[in-house]
């Protein structure tokens, strides 16, 4: 069974159609990457999966239930693209607040906070107000909050922006560990060396999924040498003009 | 549990924001102190310039229990001049039997003018009363002497008093009547603004979205806000009430519990309205722009000022009207719960309506 399943999802903001018939399937235990040029609808897709945007058409299922579903949301961690934090509170207060919102309490809450803060490398800084944090620190805190509920499904919208390479490697190690433990991870990124670490990738362009497969498959199918070129190929619409011309050829033959 | 987490977070945010807390707690005290001194009159000394008046009336004025009245005698021109340049608070001219009294007042301090006018009117009325008593007495004596005397109508005349305000007009009051509605207005203002801005930041900063991505229910979010800012209202009410009663010496007739009840209901109405309007604002400054639209009209129409018919009716559509009415009833008139029940019900109704609208707005974001 697929952990995350989107079929025929359409979303518009006002008159502007943002997503056109998006189909996605993510298996459990998979690290799935969502790639595409800026403004193609990655964040919108992630929010729809998280249950905080409702599509006009199509179905969204997570762990077999239609979203939004409060029970399922308790088993999901969501990290927004912009670090959503309370600047006047300390980092620890931020963690503790969201932990309580997820229903954690007492010693379990304290343990989860320790664990999540450890993964992103935050220690003594937890006592400081978030307003005194650097951009990267906020990003790490935001990731730690998404990890708090020990989620079965983890949605990460550009999680490693502003995080240094050493810490990034550690975070990826941790993500892999989570996936090996059966968690499903959806990650959007513009960093190509992260994209190749994903089990499978979906390429998006102008609100449509244009290709799906393992990094190798996408490189091979596009006939390019590496994932970066493949990204440009699928993201720029090059392949569409080719398939269009293919169709034209067919209709010419017919 | 989640409700408590949200309320606790709000209280934490307020605790960390020392400046806002200082403002919320100290600024109203300054405002109330100012109101107290500006409208302070009891035990004050007033000077009345007498153009001409019977001796009895002058001694009546001088013997006033509540105020020290100094009397000086001037010509009409000097008297009006004295009022004009502030040497005297009022000038008065009355004929022998006090049937006609003319008062010249400096109305620039409305409450002073009102007090001094009342003192002069009382004195004139006292003289008229005494004269009438004497007249009746004399008459009875005469009639007793002459049993064949015809029936005579005895007419008691009221003094005909005209007051002329040299500056300003008649209205004005004291802390005792301003204080109670002011406390309500202060709580409404601060809770509206702080809750509105807090919720606005929550939407803009993405934390609301983050909360909505968890199993938190919409009702829990709203209830958390009510609890958190309700706590703020309780603290503010206690500080303000203690201050006006023990420092400024305002009379507090009714129970503090009733005052707390009304102020909490006011705070809930204010914070839910603030949350609601914050969805129309895109910055903190735009939130401030609601002050002249939402707060000021309520302050003008809530009953702080005496209003003419149409405006009084308009006041009935403002939540603050019911707050002011109830607080005056409890603090000034010493009435009990049954007399403020209607006000409480209207305030609670407003709060419930605003909560439902808020839940509707949140529903637009997340379907459940
Ligand atoms: N709340 C909104 N109202 C109107 N339009 C929106 C809203 N949110 C997103 N959009 C539009 O939807 C489109 C897709 O936005 P989205 O945030 O999903 O892009 P993205 O793929 O995540 O881009 P990036 O890589 O830059 O984060 C954009 O054109 C954006 O202008
Ligand atoms: Mg995005």
How many E-type strands of chain B? 5
Helix content of chain B: 55-70%
Oligomer: heterodimer
Q: What is Rg of chain B? A: 28 Å
The secondary-structure class of chain B comes to alpha/beta
What is the N-to-C order of secondary-structure elements of chain B (H for helix, E for strand)?
HHEHEHEEHEHHHHHHHHH
Query: How would you state the average pLDDT of chain B, rounded?
Result: 82
Radius of gyration of chain A: 19 Å
Which overall shape of chain A is indicated by the principal axes computed on the Cα atoms?
globular
Biggest interface: chains and residue counts? Answer: A-B, 34 and 27 residues
Query: How many beta-strand segments of chain A?
Result: 10
Q: Could you describe the 3D structure shown?
A:
Helix content of chain A is 41%, strand content 25%. Chain A has 254 residues and is of the alpha/beta class. The longest helix of chain A has 16 residues, at 165-180. With 368 residues, chain B is α/β, with parallel strands linked by helices. Chain B folds into two domains: 45-167, 3-Layer(aba) Sandwich (D-Maltodextrin-Binding Protein, domain 2); 173-367, no CATH class. Chain B is built from 14 helices and five strands. Chain B has helices spanning 2-16, 18-38, 55-62, 76-84, 110-145, 175-204, 207-212, 218-247, 256-278, 284-288, 290-301, 309-315, 319-332, 337-365, and strands spanning 45-52, 68-73, 90-94, 100-107, 160-168. A five-stranded mixed sheet of chain B has the order 2-1-3-4-5, sandwiched between helices. In chain B, helix 3 (55-62) packs across helix 5 (110-145) and helix 6 packs antiparallel against helix 8 (218-247). Chain B is elongated. Residues 167-173 of chain B have low confidence and may be disordered. The interface between A and B is medium-sized, with 34 and 27 residues. The complex binds adenosine-5'-triphosphate and magnesium ion. Magnesium ion (MG) is lined by residues 42-43, 81, 157 of chain A.
């Amino acid at each position: 069974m697929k952990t995350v399943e989107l079929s025929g999802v359409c979303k518009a903001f006002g008159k502007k159609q943002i997503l056109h018939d998006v189909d996605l399937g993510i298996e459990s235990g998979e690290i799935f990457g969502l790639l595409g040029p800026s403004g193609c609808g990655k964040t919108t897709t992630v929010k729809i999966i998280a249950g905080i945007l409702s599509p006009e058409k199509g179905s969204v299922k997570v762990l077999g239930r239609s979203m939004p579903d409060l029970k399922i949301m308790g088993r999901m961690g969501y990290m927004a693209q912009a670090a959503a934090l309370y600047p006047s509170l300390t980092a620890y207060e931020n963690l503790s607040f969201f932990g309580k919102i997820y229903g954690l309490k007492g010693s379990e809450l304290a343990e989860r906070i320790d664990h999540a803060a450890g993964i992103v490398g935050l220690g003594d800084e937890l006592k400081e107000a978030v307003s005194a944090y650097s951009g990267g620190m906020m990003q790490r805190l935001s990731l730690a909050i998404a990890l708090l509920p020990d989620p079965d499904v983890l949605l990460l919208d550009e999680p490693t922006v502003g995080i240094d390479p050493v810490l990034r490697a550690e975070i990826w190690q941790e993500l892999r560990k989570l996936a090996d433990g059966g968690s499903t991870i959806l990650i959007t990124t513009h960093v190509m060396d992260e994209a190749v670490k994903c089990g499978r990738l979906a390429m998006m362009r102008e609100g449509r999924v244009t290709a799906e497969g393992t990094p190798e498959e996408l490189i091979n199918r596009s006939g390019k040498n590496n994932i970066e070129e493949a990204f440009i190929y699928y993201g720029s619409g090059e392949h569409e003009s080719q398939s269009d011309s293919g169709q034209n050829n067919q209709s010419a033959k017919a | 549990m989640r409700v408590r987490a949200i309320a606790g977070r709000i209280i934490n945010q307020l605790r960390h924001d020392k400046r806002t807390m200082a403002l919320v707690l100290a600024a109203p005290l300054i405002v109330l102190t100012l109101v107290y001194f500006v409208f302070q009159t009891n035990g004050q000394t007033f000077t009345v310039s007498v153009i001409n008046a019977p001796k009895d009336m002058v001694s009546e004025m001088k013997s006033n229990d509540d105020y020290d009245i100094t009397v000086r005698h001037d010509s009409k021109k000097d008297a009006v001049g004295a009022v004009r340049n502030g040497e005297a608070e009022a000038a008065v001219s009355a004929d022998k039997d006090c049937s006609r009294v003319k008062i010249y007042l400096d109305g620039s301090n409305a409450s002073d003018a009102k007090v001094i006018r009342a003192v002069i009117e009382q004195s004139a009325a006292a003289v008229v009363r005494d004269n009438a008593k004497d007249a009746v007495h004399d008459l009875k004596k005469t009639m007793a002497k002459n049993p064949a005397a015809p029936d005579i109508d005895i007419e008691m005349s009221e003094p005909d008093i005209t007051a002329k305000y040299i500056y300003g007009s008649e209205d004005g009051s004291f802390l005792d009547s301003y204080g109670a509605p002011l406390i309500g207005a202060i709580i409404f203002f601060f809770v509206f603004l702080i809750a509105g801005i807090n919720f606005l930041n929550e939407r803009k900063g993405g934390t609301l979205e983050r909360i909505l991505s968890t199993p938190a229910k919409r009702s829990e979010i709203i209830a958390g806000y009510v609890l958190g800012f309700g706590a703020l209202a309780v603290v503010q009410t206690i500080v303000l009430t203690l201050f006006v009663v023990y420092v400024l010496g305002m009379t507090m007739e009714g129970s503090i519990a009733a005052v707390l009840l009304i102020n909490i209901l006011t705070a809930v109405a204010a914070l839910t309205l603030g949350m609601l309007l914050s969805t129309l604002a895109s910055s903190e400054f735009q939130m401030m722009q609601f002050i002249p639209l939402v707060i000021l009209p309520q302050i003008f129409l809530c009953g702080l000022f005496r209003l003419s018919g149409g405006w009084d009716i308009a006041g009935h559509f403002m939540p603050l009207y019911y707050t002011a009415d109830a607080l005056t009833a409890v603090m000034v008139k010493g009435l009990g719960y049954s007399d403020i029940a209607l006000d409480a019900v209207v305030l609670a109704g407003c709060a419930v309506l605003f909560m439902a609208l808020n839940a509707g707005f949140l529903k637009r974001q997340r379907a459940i």
